[in-house]
Amino acid sequence: MSLLKDFENKIETTLEGFFARRFKSGVHPVEVAKRLAREMDSNRTIGIGKVYAPTDYVILLSKKDYDRIKPYEAAFVSELSEFLVGHAAKEHYTLLQRPSIRLKSKAGLVLGQLQVESVLAAEPGRPAGGGTEIIAPEVVEEIKRKTRQQAVATLELPAEGQMYRLGTDAVTIGRLAASDIRVGDRNVSRRHAQVLPVEGGYEVVDLDSTNGVLVNEQPVKRHRLQDGDVITLGTTELVFRSPRDV
User: Fold this and answer.
1) How close are the terminal C-alpha atoms of the chain, in Å?
2) Within a 10 A sphere around the Cβ of 150, how many other Cβ atoms?
């Protein structure tokens, strides 16, 4: 059984019908779980031999959604936390503590809208279980120091489940077998683009490709990359990840 299906079944059981009665419109629990998982994936931090995931989450809801869920908040966030523990174990992430989740109402959001924010926490917590490692608080600062020194920028190819580390050399992307990152997409040129190291970061450069380069859906010839930027070549997407301040 998938993690999401297991979560949905637990919510139905725990809330004894509230799931079916109240979530026909507005925010749906499974969508909340999906957004939390995406937030965890998007904000993970690469350390020395480990990948650290955020453990503190705030779910921002419209007032109507918040008021409907508030009476069941304790049970709801408990199941969400358990879901995140399972997701972290599945993705081989390290947690510094058991995930903590808070619900808040935010003005301006309408029924069915939500936002998720997260941070990498350092406080000790209950054992996470599921094979996910808990790091003692006294070593957290050392982990952060080493992460700052050795974390690397990466390019992710989500469709292929691949990640490429970036270093001090230019990385060529294209259909040629000699490319550093070879892409089989017919809409990608043989030498389509390069990712170049520059002072303080990286840039993507269009190598006079046929179909051009997009960054966050905007055409570019040369662009300074920021964490989370989505590079589109043909129909292929790559996600740039940069070490964050920790």
Assistant:
1) 36
2) 12
Residues 166 and 62 in one domain: no
Distance CA 233, CA 187 (A): 8
Is pLDDT at 148 greater than 90 in this prediction?
Answer: no
Residue 68: the pLDDT is 86
- Compute CA 178 distance to the chain's CA centroid, rounded to the nearest angstrom: 30
Note whether residue 125 is domain-resident.
Answer: no
Q: What is the residue range of 193's domain?
A: 149-241
Q: Which two tokens stand for residue 219?
A: 């055409």
Tell me, yes or no, whether 63 and 154 share the same domain. Answer: no
C-alpha radius of gyration, the chain, whole number? 21
Query: Which of the listed residues 119, 137, 166 is the one where a domain comes to its end?
Result: 119
Q: What is the pLDDT of residues 43-55, one digit of tens each?
A: 887 655 677 888 8
Whether residue 127 is contained in a domain is answered as: no
Q: What does DSSP assign to residue 195?
A: E
pLDDT digits (tens, 9 = 90+) for 170-214: 889 999 878 888 888 999 999 999 999 888 889 999 999 999 999
CATH number at residue 231: 2.60.200.20
**Helix spans in the chain (H):** 3-14, 18-22, 29-42, 63-69, 73-91, 140-150
Pairing of strands 193-198, 171-174: antiparallel
**One domain for residues 11 and 77:** yes
Q: What CA–CA distance (Å, rounded) separates 27 from 110?
A: 10
